[in-house]
Each structure stands twice: as C-alpha cells, then as structure tokens.
Amino acid sequence: GSREEQEDLLSESTTLYVGNLSFYTREEQIYELFGKCGQIVRVIMGLDRRSKTPCGFCFVEYLSREDGLNAMRYVNGTRLDDRIVRTDWDTGFIEGRQ
Amino acid sequence: RRRNDFEESEEGLELRLESLIIRIGEKSTSSIETNIEGLAKVLTADLDNSKTKIINIICECVAKYPEKTCIYSTLIGLLNAKNYNFGGEIVELLVRHFKDYLKALDFESARLLVRFFGDLVNCRVISSASLMNLFENLVEVSMEDNIPQSRSDYFVFCVLSALPWVGKELYEKKEQDLEQLLNTIDNYLNKRNKTHHHTALRVWYSDTPHPQEEYLDCFWAQISKLRSDKWVERHIYRPYLAFDSVLCEALQHNLPQVQPPPHEANYVYPYPKVVFRLFDYTDCPEGPVLPGAHSIERYLIEEHLHWIINQNNTDRKDCAMKLLTFPNKHKIPLEYMIIEVMFSQMFDLPKSKYLDVFYGSTLLELCKLQPSSLPQVLAQAVELLFERLDTMNCMCVDRFAVWFAYHLSNFQFRWSWDDWSTALTLDPLHPKPKFIRETLLRCLRLSFHEQVVKIIPDSFHELAPEDPIPHNKYSLEGDKPPESVPTAEVAAALVNKIKEKCTPEEALEVLKELTAPLMETDDEPNHNSLQIEVFVTVLLNLASKSFTHCFSAIAKYHSAFMALKTSEEAQISILSTIFEVWRKHQQLLVILISKLLKSEVIECSSVANWLFSKENSSEFMKSYIWEILNQTIQKSIRSVESLEKELEESKEKLRKGKSFKSHWFRWTIGRLQQVFFEHHNHVFKYLSTFETLLFTADLDQHILLIFKQFCALRN
Q1: Cα atoms found within 13 Å of the Cα of residue B51, Cβ hemisphere only
Q2: For residue B407, what is the nearest residue in chain A, using CA coordinates?
Q3: ipTM for the complex?
Q4: N or C terminus of chain B with fewer C-beta within 10 Å?
Q5: Which pTM does this prediction carry?
Q6: Quick check: B357 and A75 in contact, CB under 8 A?
C-alpha cells in the first residue's frame, strides 16, 4: 500500500515486531515478559525459511493498543536472555511472513 | 521588529504564552526569580488581548504541576501587584476550578488548589482571614452526620497538607484562629476509627523495626512537629521571598465563601493509606542524614518524588532521570528516598497505581544512570525486604518475587543466594523459602530450566522448580506394563489417528469404545471421564512442542472438546487431565486455562470449583493457582460469590483443626484479601449481597474481619 495507508495501519496496530532475540528464546519467555504489559492474543515466532528454527524475531499481538504502547514504553530496550530487546509497531501479521 | 508573522497572529502569540507559562521553572541559565519577573512583564504586556487564555492556562498549570506551586503563586503575586483587577479575576477563576474539581470528584486537584490558595496568602494575593474561613468550612465536614469517614478524612487532609506552605504566615497573623482549627482537627483525629483499614493496608503486620503508620496519624505527627518548630521547614523553595518589597504593597482579595458539595451515595473518596517505611537514618550512615519519619521534610520530599513518578509514568527513562536530578539532592540521601518511594508504590494496597513492569523497568534505568551508588542501595533494600518477609502481606510477597525475578533477568541472574541459606532450614510454607521458590519459578518463566538450576548453589536445589515437561500416563516407556492401563490401546490408536491429521469427529469415533465409568451413586454419569482423560492426555502430549502447537491443536479439535464437555463435572475432568499432563508447567496452565475460558470449553465457575477441590490441595499454596483465580475473576466478576463460599468451607474445616494461625491460614486469608483488593471496584458493587448472604454475623470472626477491613476502605 501507499505510505499513508501504511502509517494509518501503524497508528492503529496492536501488533509489535520484536527483534534482536536470541535464537534460543522460546515463546514461553515472550509470553512472560510481554504479558506484563497486557493481554496477549498471540505470539508468532519468526522462523528461518529452510531450517524452520527461530531466527531472532517475533510478533506479539495484543488485545488493545494500550497494551502494545506499554510494551513500547517498558520492554523496548530491556533484556531477555541477556539480549537487548527491540520493539516496533507492525502492521499486523499476515500468514507467510515468518 | 523581531517578531515574525506567525508570532504576530493571535493564535501564535497565545501558543507562545502557553509554552512560556508551562515551562517556567524548568532548567535555565538565569535564576528562577529573573525568569518569573520576565514572564510577569510579558504577560502584563499581552494582558489586554489574551487575558482569558492566560488565566485559564495558569489555573490548569497549578493543578498539573504541583512541584511549581510557589513559582505560580509568585507569578500571580507579581501580576496582582501590578494589576489588582487581574489578580481578582484569577482568584475568582481558581475558586471556580476548585468547585469544579470537587464536583468532578477530582480530589487530588482540589487538594492542590487548597494548598495553592494558602501560598497565595504568602504572596499577598489572598487575605489570611478569608483563607482561615475556607479552612474552617472544609474542616467542618468532619462534623457532618452519616457520612463515610473517608470524606471527613479527605477534607481534613486538604487543610493539613496546605500548612507546610502557609502555616507560618497564619501563625504570625491569625494565631488564635489557627490554634482553634488545629484543636478541632485534633479532636476529630482522636475519635477516628482506623483499626480495620490500618490492618488491611499494611505491607507488614509488624511494627518493628519501623511502625507502619496510618497516613493521617503520621501526617498529624509531622504537622505537630512542624508546629513545635514554629512552622519553619527546610524544603520548600519560595521565590516570592525575593519580591517582598513589591508584594507587600499589593492589595489582597477575599476568597468567596466556599461550601464543599454535600455527600452523595455514589461519591468515592480517596482510600486511606498506610505509610510505607523501609529505611531510617541508620541504614544510610554515609552522606546526608535521612529526615526522620515525623519530620515534615520526609513528607514533602516523598510527595515530590511521587509527583515526578506520576508525571513521567509513561517514560521510564525521563522518570529515572528526573528522579535523580531532584532539586537540592545534595542535602538528602536521594537514592534511599527514591528506592523507598518506588517500593511504596509497588507494594501499595489495595493495588499499585501502575503496572509492575513500569516500576521494574524504571529501577533498571535508575541503576543504569547511577551505576556507582544506586545498585548498592537497591541490593540493601532487597536484603531488608527479605529479612522482613516474616510479616509481609502475601500480595506484597508475590509482587516482590515477580519484580525480583524480572530484575535478576536483566542482570544475568546474578545474586549471592548463599546469604539466604537460613531459609533452607525453615518450614517450606514459611515466607522466606516460599519467596525464594516463587522467585525461581518466575526466573524459569523468563529463562529456561537448566539456567535456573545453574544460577543457584547446590544447597538450594530443593527450592528450584521442576523441569516443565509434560507427563503422559499412556506412554509405553514407563515401567508399568501396558495391560495395567486398560485404556492404553485406545490411547495408542488415537495417537495414530491424530498424527494422520484426523477430524474431530474421527477422533471422537476412536474414543467411543470407552464407556463411562459408573458414579459412586448409581446415577447415570453425566460425562465420560475416561474419554476426556484419553483425548486430552493424547492431544496435549502430541502438541507439547510449543505454546503455538498446543493452541492450534485446541483450536483444531475445539468441537471435540465441546462434545465431551457435557456438564460441570466434565469441565472439571478436562481441567484435572490438563493439570495431570502439565503439572510441572505452571505458566502454560495459566495461559491454557485462559484460552479455554475464552473459547468457552470451560466456564469460570468450573475453574473456581476445580481450584478449590480436594485434589488440588497440594497446589493451594502456590501463587499460580491465585494467578489463575484472579484472571478467571476478571473474566466473570460474579463468580466471586461462590469462591468465597468455598473458601469459607475450607476455613470451617480448618477451624476444627488445632492451631489455626498456621502459615496455611495466613496465606489463605491473604488470598481472600487479594480477591477483594484486586477487584475492589467490582466487589464494592456487590457489597450488600455479600453482607446479607455471605459475610453475616454468624460467620467465623477471622473471615468476617477481612471483609470488614475491606469495607473500611470506603467507610
């Protein structure tokens, strides 16, 4: 879509892109850390196309925008598995993006 | 002319004025006094065009930036000295704001305005006689009949909390009136009822080493000390003192008569509080002295720190930075006071104001910004909290463990656990070993099992969580021969079917062979527990690779779950089987149950009945059980009633036992309190139902007391 459409989607999104994860970080840990900020609808682990193993990112979808905002406020830049987690708004997960 | 076109437009000008008024008092190269004087000049020049706008902005800033009370009062003082009518209009509008805040039940803003009126007396904008009159009207509320105590508490607190600002002026000008006012307040405070809420809201049940004082009692002691010091305090920075010669010429205004709006049944006043005390001066032997618990400075500095936290709760970095650049920080042990205030909010009862993770992440920033001193103070605080676990409220024990595990996860889980080895010799339900166990469980959720085992000394392994792996009672690898499990064959067949990606109907077809076991009574069973056990055990084990596998398996076989869920007993059977498979994975149990509630496989009341069932008694003392309960209550607040009944029955049984004040009792009573506190707004809606049906006079006094203490929050 156009840039404006993209920005509109981002400003209403309840989904975060989470980067800089360790390859060993499991869904459980994402649920625990990001669950501190609100109700998680689902977590989608980013998988390597060939090996189907985690490759350092995931998507976290929250029930509400406010929950996602809290994650941007309080989790972005803190550590999980001793790596500094980076979060950003995402336009929402579409099947196949893993 | 320097002004450009934009600034010459009316809108541009007002925006510029607004920004100047909001930002006054922020970091600047010139002194506060110079800045205030400059702003007063600018505002006077633009008065004709933008008067209404200017007045509105000032009035809003007064309630929004309480740390700048004296800056705004000085500003208004200077404006009033130059233009008496303008001063009058500001006072009039401030009074209107004050009434509006009370009407809107914005009690904190209204309190800040009362204080501001006091400070306007110092700036010769308001007459001391009319302020005394306002104070008397507010305190008079304490004589009203049939009102909740929280109402009179609030208005008395309003007046008291203005006294650090204006007490000295009133003492010099209106000594008699002030004495009389304080006597009225003293009489009121002496007859207050505070046993209930005081007990319920304490973080610690014990008064050693530090008394956990009721907030008005403590504040009264602080004000009394200030009074005996002739109202001289050392914290408030008063820029108006520099303008004495200008201000003493000014004419004063009288505040109009203001009567607080009468009480109405739906008014909820601020809850009472208990003052959190962690440190005294002996805890910080180096550096400046910590103000004593009854010195007004302790109160003023703490209140100021709370404001900083409230204003910056959405930005942990700004929050940490602003806390550490506190004005006059060299005169106080700032790190200690910040940590104490942070924990006081984290442990605040009934609920903390912000998310746990706000406090956790802000403490991380504080450590990052002040690495040479803050981590040590924080570690010292953790030691003290651990030492005082014996009498800590159980909700606070939970919050402590959740925070501590989170904090450790950001510091490679490094901690000198050996210092806490005394905990290993205690009863497993004692708060110390229990705290360590819960902390390690939380560490597990943020890392993985091998790591948790690695971070603790060998001697602590009995407190370490189990490896969160699933259990499969139909697995052939066990040492029991398959024929001893009559259902093993069906289970094996189901495994193959599901691996072939069968439909829910096909899965149910396989289970048909299993007939329902008969009930103890000869009634027709209303559910087939064997089918449920086989189906749930097989499905969960096949989908045990990750949360996602588990959730998609449940989604795919949703209709099979719905077909098997024929009654409440069936739901409990589903829950028991899930528990049997995932007993070692508490976190998954919590999330799984929430998913099943959402997809309507399970109802709230079944979760409640299952949690309190006899089979679950081994888990009863563990935090995650209450995590499940509270999440379920959130789902359906009405189910609370039946839970209380269950709990009451447990107590009934307990009472027949011997020493009832065991650890078990303390945790259970604490959990009952937690149900009230976590959902206080909702529980209050059902208060009369509770009073007539459940918490009646014939109930055991220990249980009834918890209810009464809760009610006292709004009394």
Answers
A1: 11
A2: A79
A3: 0.94
A4: N
A5: 0.91
A6: yes
